Amino acid sequence: MGLYIALEGGEGSGKSSQAKRLARRIDAVLTREPGGTGLGAELRQLLLSPDLPEISARAEALLMAADRAEHMELVVEPALAAGRHVVADRSVYSSLAYQGGARGLGVDAVMAINQFGLKGRLPDKVVLLEADAEVARSRMTSLPDRLEAAGQRFHAAVARTYAELASAEPDRFLVVSANDAFAVVESKIWAAIEPWIAAESIDGNNH
Ligand code: TMP
Q1: How far is the CA of 99 from the centre of ligand 1 (A)?
Q2: Strand runs (DSSP E) across 52-196, as ranges?
Q3: pLDDT band for position 139 (50/70/90)?
């Protein structure tokens, strides 16, 4: 079985570039939510479009969960079963932070609607990149998508919920400050992930 690693963080945390770099290092399948499947690409376009008419928080959470169910079934599970590692740019923890925390649906309720599609599988490790709001803003160069445009209070609630999730599951989460230069963040991630991957593969060989 491969290992399932998710990169998480707010907008402008640099997680997509770090996910790419990490996937290359460990020869993992690189994927993302929303959007890692055919259905997901359509859902991503819909969900991030600034032209989407206002939708309810519950519908938003369910559409994210539908993307995730497809992604689990078609990408994550088959890759892990084939012995590949998976590096995912976002996971169910994004839904917990954005829909559960910032939209106010509650972390437990959002986890519950996701379990049907996840079939109990969570990322083995979550790398949470934390960037100060100012640093994050300075990195966002293109026009904001629908969620990026949600406002400062929304994004502060996302960051707060991520921090709570990380402290509730210290073994699953690796929290890295993303305020530093890209290469510094990259080496901090690698310093923590490399020994863990090495230990897991020794452990895996013994079973
Ligand atoms: P990004 O991955 O390019 O940052 O864009 C995805 C956006 O969708 C981002 O604003 C976070 C948001 N999102 C949710 O609100 N819930 C989710 O479950 C996921 C995967 C993403």
Answers
A1: 10
A2: 86-89, 125-130, 173-177
A3: confident
Ligand 1 centroid distance, CA of 207 (Å): 36
Which residues lie across from 173 on neighbouring strands? Answer: 126
Do residues 101 and 158 make contact, with C-beta atoms less than 8 angstroms apart? Answer: yes
Per-residue model confidence (pLDDT) at position 205: 64
User: pTM higher than 0.90 for the full model?
Assistant: yes
Per the structure, the count of domains in the chain is: 1
For position 82, which CATH number holds? 3.40.50.300
Range of the domain at 67: 4-205
pLDDT at 207 over 60: no
**For residue 206, what pLDDT is reported?**
60
Ligand 1 atom nearest 64 alpha carbon: 18
